Amino acid sequence: MKILNKKIDLRFYSIALILCYPLLKFNIISILTGVCAITSIFYFIINKENMDKKYLKYFLSSSSFVLIMLVTLLYTDNLKHGFIKIQQSSSILIFPLIFFFFQKKITSKQFDKLLEIFNIACLLCTIYIYTEIYENGLFSYLFEKEVSFWNNPFRDVLNNLNYLDLHPSYYSIWLLFCNLFLINKLVTRKNSLFIVFLILLQVIFFIFTSFLFASRATIIGFLIAVLILLILTIKSNLKKAIAVSLIVVLSSISITQISFLKVRFFDEVNAQKLKPPVGIAHTSSNIRVGIYKCASELFQKKPIIGFGIGDVQAELNNCYLQFHTRVYQEGNYNTHSTYLNLLLSGGIIGLLLFLLSIFLQFKLALKSENYLYLSFILLIIPFFLFENVLSRMHGAVFYGLFNALFIKQILSTKK
């Protein structure tokens, strides 16, 4: 009765539940997304609210490339696979639709609370992962001087968790985004010494954890994002110079001296020639060379409209047959690049719409002086280059959810 009498609005809390997704299985995430959509529409109707037309252009700019992927179903041969791919990236459409048209305004204070909830969820998820690492007896590896890139035991644990289905790259980008939020909070607000100590402790903890799983794309994106964030938010030139110098020095030392990173950034790249793999002599680097070679060949066949979202994987698999290895058949490798996937699925049109979307988001972040949003974009751009983010639910949810939230919060507080 309190709900019907408009004394309680559960829309904010439905978003808060979704932001616990690092702790949840895929089916629970889907259920909570549906609950959020139904709750938002319910309150929109009983409160007799009107849609704000100003959000239409932001909805189209945020999800136009996904709409193009829907259009490609008209000429793709494998419709079933195409619908599965659309379903995996549906968060890019669903969250902007819910937040822009059916959610009430999100204040800066509410937005901070939502980020805190996500941060706590990532912290709890990390604690759970360390319990798995402990049960597998892997803490001794922390003190190993030599670690082989062929077998990172921490990545193996993450790929085989008992409760959750996580990927090292996607999990790492959650932690590093939390770090951007915490660093922004540290630099832009007045905090007690105790709060500063807790923030620094968690930042170090998350950086250390991301180093264990050694995801190159996320680390590169984080270094770019955090440098720009510090340059734009620190007012004192001296403090700015000290902070930037410290980040550059520490990152250089980490990449060259910490074994988990050194083997990923240097040893793995130098282990094989940058040519497609032959036989069992393969690394993630030369596997990508073969993927990019096939992507280039396929693009030349249908450069304008692409093959359609349902046929890209089949075309790639046929192209992989030219290489003298079974690696691609055993791994069923996708494009490992969001840009290439859009290029092969929707041609130049699909890729240009996506790049335009990123550009407009970048412009909005600068215009509104929302440097945390800007750092989010800078974090995700290199990630798009090396991972097919929209083909995984965790990637689509992360990008679709936070991108829509940032835009909603900016438009709720700025004219």
List keywords for this structure.
415 residues; mainly alpha; 18 helices
How would you concisely characterize the structure shown here?
The chain is an all-alpha fold.
Strand content: under 5%
- Helix/strand class: mainly alpha
Count of helical stretches: 18
Poorly predicted ranges? none
Q: Radius of gyration in whole Å, from Cα?
A: 22 Å
The percent range for helix content is over 70%
Q: What profile does the largest beta sheet have? A: none
Compute the average pLDDT: 86
Could you characterize what this model shows?
The chain starts with 10 loop residues before the first helix and ends with a helix. The radius of gyration is 22 Å and the shape is globular. The protein contains 18 helices and no strands. The chain has helices at residues 11-18, 26-46, 56-71, 79-88, 91-101, 108-135, 153-159, 168-188, 193-213, 216-233, 237-257, 259-271, 284-301, 312-320, 327-331, 338-367, 371-386, 393-413.
